[in-house]
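fyi for ur records
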Amino acid sequence: LCVLKVDYDVCSNYGNWLYSAGIGNDPRDNRKFNMIKQGLDYDGSGDYVRLWVPELQGIKGADIHTPWALSSAALSQAGVTLGETYPQPVVTAPEWSRHIHQRPGGSPHPRGRRGPAQHKDRGIDFYFSRKKDA
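which gave:
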């Protein structure tokens, strides 16, 4: 199997990495990449994280995006020990707090918190499925 990447753009790729790290060029003041929100929006069930971070495979659903916020009992049940089998977070940005314990798709969390806002007009269909004005 041979894979050829045809969309490689050095400037764009490095720019995106810098932006994700929070040090890129952005005209908006204090703009930061919110990893938890992105995880909930694009990997709501946590399948991608589970594929690449086997230490967290025992954590069910979207909780995989914030293992440090789980109870000791939930971590124990998943076979995760923070600081031993999986590292403690190096930093937890204040901006993340409103996304911790949210559920993808707006379904309520068992503790009564609401999930992220739904944007049904987003994604590829947003750009290609609407009828264009003549």
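Confidence is low (pLDDT under 50) at residues 107-122. thats all i got for now
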